[in-house]
Amino acid sequence: MPGRRLGKNGPKISAIGYGTMGLSLGYGPPGSDEERFKVFDRAIELGSTYFDTADMYGDSEDLLGK
């Protein structure tokens, strides 16, 4: 996956990020941690290095930290 630099001297991240809101809320009850880890694993396999999280996204930040 192509990358993009954040600012002039910032880190290089994937051009396409993964928004994590849907893993915790918004589309019905969340799946098991195991199912949601598979989603993260697949995004990483496809070259994603940027994950968009927020406190208001439920437990997505905690899940990513595991």
Automatic annotation (TrEMBL):
Keyword Ribosomal protein in the entry? The reply is no
| Statement: the UniProt record of this protein carries the keyword Lyase | no
Gene Ontology terms, MF aspect: oxidoreductase activity
Keywords linked to the UniProt accession: Oxidoreductase
Checking Gene3D superfamilies in the record gives:
NADP-dependent oxidoreductase domain
Which GO terms of the cellular component aspect does the record hold? cytoplasm
What residues does the NADP-dependent oxidoreductase domain cover? 15-66
Q: Where are the transmembrane segments?
A: none
Q: What is this protein called?
A: NADP-dependent oxidoreductase domain-containing protein
**Lineage of the organism:** Eukaryota, Metazoa, Spiralia, Gnathifera, Rotifera
